[in-house]
Structures are given as C-alpha cells and as structure tokens.
Amino acid sequence: MRLLLVEDDPKISRFLVAGLQEEQHVVVHVADGRLAEDRAELETFDAIVLDLVLPGRDGWRVCRHLRDAGIETPILMLTARDAVADRVRGLDAGADDYLVKPFAFEELLARLRALERRGPRGIGSSVLREGPLEIDAAAHQARLEGHVLELTATEYRLLEFLAPRAGTIVSREQIADHVWGDEYDPFSNLADVYVSYLRKKLGCPLIHTIRGLGYMLKDREARPS
Q1: Whole-Å CA distances, 44 to 13, 125, 203
Q2: Helix 172-180 and helix 153-162, axial crossing angle in degrees, nearest 10
Q3: Which end of the chain is more exposed for a tag (fewer CB within 10 A), N or C?
Q4: Is this model's pTM higher than 0.70 or not?
Q5: What tens digit of pLDDT does each residue of 39-85 get?
C-alpha cells in the first residue's frame, strides 16, 4: 500500500515509518495538518493514517476538509483520546476507522488490511483488466491469462500503479513517487530497471516506452498513440 502518515511526534513517526516500510508499504510522512491536506489532494494514496493533535490544523479538520474536497481515500485516525465522544466526532468527520494510542503495531496492520479490502469509500473492490492482464487489488494478486504472476512487492506496486492508468502515459517521476515515495533517489534509474523486470515477467508487450515521456500500459493488440 502507498500510505500517507500524518504524525508530529518524532519518536512515534520514526517507529511507524520503519515498521510500515518493513512490511513493504510505501510511506510518505508529514507532521503538519495543512501539509497533509496538500499531499492528499495532489497525490494518490491507498490509505491515510492521521493523528488528531497536529500543528497547522488538527486531524478532525483535516479529515473534514478532505471529505468536503471529494477525497475518498480511507482514513485511519490515531489518537490518545479514548472518550466515546471523540471517537464519534472522528467518524462523523469522515474517518473510516479509529485506533487509540498506545496500540499494538499488529493491530494497525490488521486495520490497514481491512481498509485495503474495503477500498475507497462507497466503491467495492474490483478487478482491473487490460487485455490478458488482471489486477485483483483485494487479493493483492496479478494474473496473466489466468495464471498468477510471481511478483516482488515492488513489482506489484509498479503494476498496480500502471493498471488503472492503462492507455495513459505515466512519467518516470510519477512511477518513482508512487512506488518508492520520499525514499527515491532522483538520480537513480530504478524506475527503468523495474519496468524491465516487469516486462520480462509479463513476457508480452504490455508496457510500452513512450520516448522522452515515460511508459504506457496498453493491450498488445492496440497501438499506443
């Protein structure tokens, strides 16, 4: 999953970033409510882990702002407040789930998996198809002509990013930001390397190079314009 972590406590944020990355998630971390709004509106995330007490703008207001702006990314709220009224306030603001500090890291992972299965608010999980390729987000699985592809976590994130943008040119910078997040070295050629890996595993011309612009996922029977 590509996650936006909004947490201003340095100790907690370091722990969560390290733990989530260890679980193969891509984590973008911000420590300010207004910065969180900017990132969530400009970028695509699978879920937002949102603390309530933040500088700039508190978590309740961030959550309400994003929902009013039409952002339907699942939101998991984190807080030290365990009063029923606070939980109700968070859910009424548009949060999908609520986790009270201190919490077990395994429970955080389980709740994120549940949000991933549920998908964006009001949208059921679906299988994306492009020619012989299927991406099953709920199963976290890719299939080619019905056969499951053996992909690394990074290869799957790359394919999962390309699939819903089939027929659209995606730049190397967009790929790098989604797959590696803030950890990506802009002078690296990792995006090209992993596209090459993925092409070999697909074994058919589904990922096209658009010279000078980036890449496009498109059925081999169609020609990219």
Answers
A1: 20, 17, 28
A2: 130
A3: C
A4: no
A5: 998 888 889 999 988 998 999 999 999 999 888 899 999 887 666 77
Per-residue model confidence as pLDDT tens digits over 94-116: 888 888 888 899 999 999 988 88
CATH of 127-217, one of 3.20.20.140, 1.10.10.10, 3.40.50.300, 3.40.50.2300: 1.10.10.10
For residues 191 and 166, what is the distance between their CA atoms, to the nearest angstrom? 17
Fold held by 2-118: Rossmann fold (3.40.50)
Residue 215, both tokens: 């890449």
Instruction: Annotate 49-92 with three-state secondary structure.
Output: EEECCCCCCCHHHHHHHHHHCCCCCCEEEEECCCCHHHHHHHHH
For 45, 71, 96, 193, the CA distances from 42, given in Å and listed in that order, are 10, 10, 21, 26
* Residue ranges covered by each domain of the chain: 2-118, 127-217
